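Give me the fold.
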Amino acid sequence: MKKKAILSAAATVCFVAGATTPVDYVNPLIGTQSNFEVSHGNTYPAIAMPWGMNFWTPMTGKMGEGWTYTYTESRIRGLKQTHQPSPWINDYGQFAIMPVTDKPVFDQDARASFFSHKAEVAKPYYYSVFLADHNVTAEIVPTERAAMFRFTFPENDSSFVVVDAFDKGSYVKIDPKAQKITGYTTRNSGGVPENFKNYFVLEFDKPFTYTAAVTDGNINTASTESKADHAGAIIGFATRKGEKVHARVASSFISPEQAELNLRELGGNDFDTLVKQGRDRWNDVLGRVEVESDDVDRLRTFYSCLYRSTLFPRMLHETDANGNIVHYSPHTGKVHPGRFFTDTGFWDSFRGELPMLNLMYPEISAQMQEGFYNAYLESGFYPEWASPGHRDCMIGNNSASVVADAFVKGVTPANAEGMYEGLLHGANALHPSVSSSGRFAYEDYNTLGYVPVESGRQSAARTLEYAYNDWCIYQMGRKLGRPAAETDVYKKRSRNYRNLYNAPFHLMSGKDRDGNFTPDFDPVEWWGPFTEGNSWHYSWSVFHDIEGLIDLMGGRKQFVAMLDSVFTTPPTFGKNVDTRKQLIHEMREMQIVDMGQYAHGNQPIQHMIYLYNYAGEPWKAQYRLREVMNRLYLPTPDGYCGDEDNGQTSAWYIMSALGFYTVCPGTDEYVLGAPLFTKATVKLPNGKNIEISAPQNSDTNRYVDNLKLNGKDYGKNYLRHADLTGGARLDYKMSDKPNYKRGTRKSDAPYSLSNEK
């Protein structure tokens, strides 16, 4: 047995293990070397449990900044409880804790300390940093709704801990007798009702010899309570050299009493025991997939991506004094029974992240579906971008995809009929105050068969997504046995993508109310009728009917030529776009890696490479997929391209590395690529395994020469959900040369609506 250790400047957390485990490969700092202009992930180190209600992160940015932690910064202002899903969405339910020495300081710049990554340890379940200006090592171990801090102080008569409840309305109270600080923070970026509060409690294991309440920057030692725009607290004591002071912390969106109840998650455990429990929990989740490789960087990349894919959506529910699961609703401001999940944008996560959970973690997906349904029941609409309530961000009605995919794959709870009714409502209505929930311009879409450019920006992107969303409703309704008169409406509308096909260009473009295409159409021009992209990116968003798109483009040969052109068309933004004034960071990262118009750093095009399978040239997908995995994913602070986005860009890598991907959620099919590893095993919760073997696999041998499914030759370009969940063995013979015969027949292609009998 070998001892492995997590080392910090003043403390050591030890565990014994016979071998490196999945969580040991995870680097939470991947993607943190980002900025406003060029993002390499836009992530922060989330110190948390899988799907946990509360995350913790070191805070290098200032209060209220979306980029809360940036790898290239050199000072930490606090250790923050965060619920931020994205720097663009920003945060809510946030407050910070910071140990300081020598004198009590509250101002975030005055208390900030220099730190080095050489004295920083970031694991999903544990964080440690040496705060040089204060000569203090700070450590965190989280549970789902609580955490324990351990501060190792120097010998000092004046050691302090600052609690910053942030501005925009906050409250703190110090109870010296109980060695406790309670309070609440209200700072948020939207998506909450008027009575929103995040209640917190901190319990220390050392008596206070100094107390001060802070009101809008004023430190008052005569007071132990503050309610202000910006409230805070400072407690202090003398410390011996190397003395460890612990703080037990929890919070609740329900009440101060519930925050106290949430402390129960820590139990009577000491810090090291909690670290072991957290490590075990992450290994339980990440251990669903075992991959083998001699390339440690690939293992680091894979398990770091799996970590990112199992953070969001996060639970917002809590367990009350009677053991009931309840949640504070960001829609009604009341406490309701049942689960609630939030902090995800379906525009991103419907594509791969949530389908990945449906396959690998269906028991969690079922809970999420319950939570999404509760959001519909409490607000009248499914969320499209939730943080924690409806946020006015992005486009589409992709809750239809999220709900339908879970239903088709058998993970939906018993209330499928009610969930379907929610989809019907959202397809024919618009949220009264949030234009991204329901369907913007649904009247025009239902009447004209497309969203006209006069309705506003992003009209073509909305049309393409609505058409796919209509297909999802049709698919779910049909499987529920709903009347054909009802489902045929959505089947017909799902063909609306055809209305935007601009034949001379073989691409999609915007169209006005009179049926005229946008004049002076430029396929590379960003925005306009598209969302965070251009026509080269969005024209492939016909997930449900690629055969129909192939027919529009003039057949397989022309279709493949257009796919090829994505990689050879220069990565420009269009003559009408001034990149000095308009942020197009999603394409900037791709422009500088030389992949033409293939903008993998944003979501709309991430399925595109798999479309070669529909046109009978799967070897091109196999080549391109390996290029993307090798060049655009690294286990480094700049290891992502573009926005990681709530696990979606990570989930693309996870699924692609296993050798398949969900091009069309709502079908029961996974479109094949080629595996990255020589061996991988997915351990499903039903006790079955998906075993993937490719012994000749290498960067040279990236092509599939032959595939056997459960011992029999398999020539199709897709796998069915039941093939995998029933237990499957996939044996690949890999080669350095394409097999121009395998997967070339039309019958080998995955599902398309046009092929329905």
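The longest strand covers residues 243-252.
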